[in-house]
Amino acid sequence: xxxxxxxxKNEILKRFKPIDKFAHKGLQGHALIVGGxxxxxxxxxxxxxxxxxxxxxxxxxxxxxxxxxIVQTIIPEVMVITDDYPTHLTAxxxxxxxxxxxxxVGMGLHSETQQxxxxxxxxxxxxxxxxxxxxxxxxxxKEWLELLPPKTILTPHKxxxxxxxxxxxxxxxxxxxxxxxxxEYDLVVVVKGAPTVIVYHDALFENSxxxxxxxxxGSGDVLTGIITGLLAQSYEPLDxxxxxxxxxxxxxxxxxxxVGYHAFxxxxxxxxxxxxxxxxx
Length: 281
Description:
Layout: E1 4-7, H1 9-13, H2 25-28, E2 30-34, H3 42-52, E3 58-63, H4 68-74, E4 79-82, E5 100-103, H5 111-123, E6 128-130, H6 133-140, E7 152-154, H7 158-165, H8 171-185, E8 187-191, E9 197-200, E10 203-207, H9 219-232, H10 237-259, H11 266-271, H12 273-278
Parallel strand pairs: 1-10, 2-3, 2-5, 3-4, 5-6, 6-7, 7-8
Antiparallel strand pairs: 8-9, 9-10
């Protein structure tokens, strides 16, 4: 493919920012993960933990009330803000003063949640990554794409991408449509697959890490958290996407000898983030 760059370790090291020895949590940035609904609180929990373990100084999860005890118990390092409603999000009006926001994981498609998302988009100025149901809501309300901040990161899998840009006949046609979409709305698009390709306008970056272990529930939620954590550390959005996808894939490569393909879970991805980041020092 034209303008395609393969992101190996040398390319990642050009973009990676080691944490300064004099850093404190304020400098590392405060990230917000917005999502969850009844039965899908695991999604923002995974994202929030991955975000914290990717170097963000502070992480807050914005979730329905039904998830409060769950997140506070399993991730004590993460702060929690709850919606007034118990089972889904009805307002996202406390999402202020954050350096980066990841939204959509496990959020559901309730009509009240969709309106809350719309009002959030009208007010938000922070660097943003949209995943999962956030993407599905945008695909049903394409005029809202105009409200996304410049260089917002979208992380669709195949079906989510089809809903956003329409069907394609082959890989070349898919990439052409993604390029057009990226340029029209000034978006960084992470086209998840084997391999994952990051698209920004006419530039293409093919990821070099990962294996079939990542084909497991929650893997995408973890990726959203990793990229949000990098955004919170003031990475440029394209760099956050490229480094985040690389590290995410690397966790599966590192875990392979111990866990194999079948038993790998999204939590294994998080557990191996430390080893993945250490390869970049």
